[in-house]
Amino acid sequence: MAHTRAAVVSEDNSGMRTETIAFRRSKRQGMTMSVTERYMRHDIPCALSLCTRCAPQNQELQRRGIPLLNPQHPRRILVPDTSVVSRFIELLESAAADDHGSSSSSSGSLNNIVFCQTVLDALDKRNRSRTIRNVRMIAADPRRSSVVFANEVFAETAVPDGPSNESSTERDMRAVQQTAKWYAQHIRDCGAAAASSPMCIAILTLKETHANNVYRSGGATAEERDDEVSAGVEVWHLDDFVAQNCSPQVVDHYREIARATEHTDMDITDKTALEYAQSRLKAKSQTGCYPAAYWSPQDVEDGLRAGTLVRGKIRMLRTGPAAGTTRQPQGIIDRADGAPSILVSGRVALNRACPGDTVVVRLLTDSEAAANNTAAAEADAGGNGGDDESESDDEESVAVDQIDAGEEPIAESEALAANHASGVVVSVTERKWRPFVATLQIDGSGSSRHLAVPVDVNVPKIRIHYMDIAAIADRYFVVAIDGWLADSQYPHGHFVRALGRIGDLDAEIDTILVERQIAVSQASLAFSEASLREMPVDLPLHPWCPSPDDIEGCRDLRDTGTLIFSIDPQGSQDIDDAVSMRPVDGGKLELGVHIADVTRFVAPGSATDTEAQARGTTVYLADRRFNMIPEILSERICSLRGGQDRFAVSVMWTLDPENEYTVESVWFGRTLIRSACEMYYEQAQELLDGKTGVNGIDPEMEPGFRQSIQDLAKVMRVLRERRQRNGALELASTEVKFEFHKETRAVAEVRPKKSLEIHRVIEEAMVFANTAVAQRIHQHIPGAALLRRHRSPTSDRFERLIKAAGTRGFAIDCSSNAALADSLRRVAQAAHSDPDLLFLAKSMATLAMQEADYFATGDCGGPAEFAHYGLALDYYTHFTSPIRRYADIIVHRQLLAALAGAESSAAEPASSSALPVESRQWVGSVAARLNERNRQSKVAQRESTELFQSRFVAQKTQKEEGQDSQPLVADGVVAEVRANGLIVYVPRFGLRGPVHLRDKATGRIQLPLSTLSGKPGDVDKIIDGCTEFVAESDRLSIRLPINVPVFHLGDHHRLSFAVFDHVKVMLRVLETRRRRAPVYLTLVSQAWGAASGGAGALSGSRAYRSSLPSLEKKFRISAANPAVLARSGRKSKPTPSENKLGQSGPPEDALLRGSKETATSSKGGKSKGKSKNAWYAGGAYGILEKFSEMSLLETRREPQRLGSSPGTKHPTDPGHADPQN
């Protein structure tokens, strides 16, 4: 490597321009040239309030709110050098004006400071961004009368490069001296020095050489020293200056800082920028803040061979630390050989690894793992000691908490802790850095160095340089990572392009597409000209129709009496499947599944085929879709539209009704069909139910459709039951439907998609066809058939489901898919009155599953590895959706090749003329890409759903003009317990989100007052004094304060939440400048009626019940006005019905705890004739309100404060939402 430099100086109309040319030679890039231009200016003002020469410019600075220098008493301007600013910035910050806050200078303060651009450049070269930010804060404070002076670009203060042996520190000191001299001369020239007392410029430094030798001890000639002093410039060592000119308080503070920083690298002038960076890296390596470096390739290979190192892909876990500490990143490497996964904890151990990177990990012993965890926690809690490493962002932390949905589930965390090995990353062999969408973290320093905050919470912030921050401050933009230095907390990268304003719908969609690596923008998803030129002609005046040549070789089903129809969601355009069912000779039935023949129009290797393979799948978002093939095919020529002649690939079975519809024969082949009707699911369901006069159905054809659908349903029920006997699972996932306003395209309504039997009927028919085709192509191409498998999940993945179901008395057997299916059926039978419980149980089972994937049969050990766990099938593939899945196109080609009798074998094809779909290597590589594309498409669809859910909630809760925002309260079900709260599923809107009940940073319990009052208006009031926050895998409990007025409710004063409990939550949107505004939930109350009469009663678990005496025995509550109380000595006895679990009276946890000395003990049951709603809404809280106002009862201890401020009366709200509704 070699460096050469050359400087060019020229004059232009605006001033002098300097151009520095640097040549750099490296083995990788050869010789490169970098050019740095700097324009010298003559119009930079002095920013001195006393100056008459620069008065117009200074007035403009004042108009813009920039403070000026105002030296009065004493008349002195301070010019600190780099050593002072870097080491004693805290002193310069804290030594504000005077003790009384006046703006005038005093002898005890350090004001009227000129910070040279030279000093800030030196700090910037050493990544001291926080120090730079603090300097700019001082300059922005009008009390300090301080400025930042651009001496490097001012023609009269710029200094040329010195001799080659001059250090950067010496050069910077020359620049500071030149600035001080110019100020002294400028003050004399402008007349400011003609005042009664002279004004001097004081250079402050820590360098004895500069402070003593040069100017005091003879390092310069007497004439030079006299010239400097006569010029009004003094050079002080900071120690002498503070001792002689500052107040005792400032002197003490200075000495404290000096002691604390004596043996540190705070003074950056002791070393060059390179030496400073190397020393920081070495120091951090020794203290455990950062690893020293990656291992060499040879050491990595040796370790892999010896088995001490493990290679694998790392994925990030969204786990957080214990309360009160900083969030620690964690990664995990899954091993395919069945060995325990490797957990990498903390930023130090991760060693700059990013999600998806291929890393090499060194396994740790137990003692090393414990030491590593301790060191990581200390490093994260204490910071990393560098200004660039401590960029805090409170808004980002709040947003991440909401998007993150809290920490990992307790069950998963416990299982991970018990079943993992620990390791540290020693090398990254392959980076998966991709373009990241980010937003800007604005620090207010005015620097060009910023942090880009990726919208993916698992990706670290990225340091970028960008000058025009106003252009991207409120926008999404794309950044790329260039590298990651070992001594930096953040990788460094560069700005690529802007996407759009945060919150704008198109910008949000573009963000999803880029993040999921689907496209660089929506516009880029338009099809190429080459692809469009391959399309058939289909114009209104010349519609496409099959030619006689095309029909040749097809089975024509148009006039055979076969009634073919399609059933799809309403409004579907890309119809790729149709069905038929008719009786045939001998009492048999003919079942047909007819799939659009896309391969007829998409030739292998064509431009359309290449684009379709690259896209992999049609991407369906909530309000739009991005097709895999051009619309002329997907929506017109290939789509099986009603009344139109279309080509299809059909599978037709002959079934025996007398023998449980066993298959007697099956036929595969190309067909020509004419669909009789484009039905949508709701119409087909009405026909299945036997209804007549179905809207939109031709009355003459309705009987035939009804009979065909009912026969089809009858067959599919038998086939489905057969699969279920073999262990097929009925799982669940959240799907919602959005309705949009036609004009504004705003979300009008969100509702979960209704499950109909006809959905399952069509689904079963498609499964039947996929299975038949899978068997056929495997017979023909046993080594290269493209199949789809679903691996068996490990038992530990069901831990959360097992524990949650156990709280309701259900036993879950996950030893096989058949056992799991039986367990879920028992839950369904018992929970018929609580569909939400059943849905969540099935959802937990779904989350425990591994992801299904495509594979080439030759890449597996044998048919035993082909099985589909969820469907309970030995062979399965995707054949029925070639319009929207490229995998189906491959399967169509393989099936047609099999039908054509193409020669192939399980081995690699020997001839280059063999079809690529028969190549194991080609099919396997395409399968891997399709798995990734499908995965990203599903995530994009989910993120799109969350986007529109967020926009809907924002619309519903936004403030109307002149009115407060309207609360959106909905019923929810506890889906998970997390370390700091709950995950609640809201069936009404098909969403789930976090309910935070404990602050992660402070550990403070944040239980809303609404959990006791039932009032939505109390959700933001926190009950003080809650303790014992206990989060288990299936239950969370909080101890309420004992001395809350007004009652004492026994020894079991805990509020508990279990999985499957019903609650009420308030939905709101967190507005953030960082990323899509997430929906977050706040707990309103427990839905007592649902809990006691729903899941709890079904499972036989303990219902919530108060075992305490009735409060109404001591305090009579008026039924007409529950807030009115009267003393009563009347005794009452409980009725038998009132002693039953879950009957009348409030749950014990719903009552506020009072101290034991508060109320007189009493016995008896609940009062008669009082509804639970009235008791809860008016009685319990009514008493609390009354006693908070009247203080009728005295306690020995001061009552705990409820609400926002002491003495605040809780407003009565007769119309608040009933917690039982």
Chain-wise SSE layout:
Layout: E1 2-12, E2 15-26, E3 30-39, H1 55-63, E4 76-80, H2 82-87, H3 89-94, E5 114-116, H4 117-125, H5 129-140, E6 147-149, H6 168-190, E7 200-205, H7 208-214, H8 222-230, E8 233-237, H9 238-245, H10 248-260, H11 273-287, H12 297-306, E9 309-317, E10 330-333, E11 341-345, H13 346-350, E12 358-363, H14 366-382, H15 394-404, H16 410-418, E13 420-430, E14 436-441, E15 449-454, E16 462-465, E17 475-483, E18 492-501, H17 505-515, H18 529-533, H19 548-551, E19 555-556, E20 564-568, E21 577-584, E22 588-596, H20 607-615, E23 619-620, E24 625-626, H21 631-637, E25 645-656, E26 662-674, E27 678-680, H22 681-688, H23 702-725, E28 736-740, E29 747-752, H24 757-780, E30 786-789, H25 799-806, H26 817-830, H27 835-848, E31 853-856, H28 886-899, H29 920-957, E32 968-978, E33 981-986, E34 991-996, H30 1010-1013, E35 1027-1031, E36 1035-1039, E37 1054-1058, E38 1062-1069, E39 1079-1086, H31 1088-1093, H32 1095-1099, E40 1115-1117, E41 1125-1127, H33 1172-1190
Parallel strand pairs: 4-7, 5-6, 7-8, 11-13, 19-26, 20-27
Antiparallel strand pairs: 1-2, 2-3, 9-10, 9-12, 10-11, 12-13, 14-15, 14-17, 15-16, 17-18, 20-21, 21-22, 22-25, 23-24, 25-26, 28-29, 30-31, 32-33, 32-38, 33-34, 35-36, 36-37, 38-39, 40-41
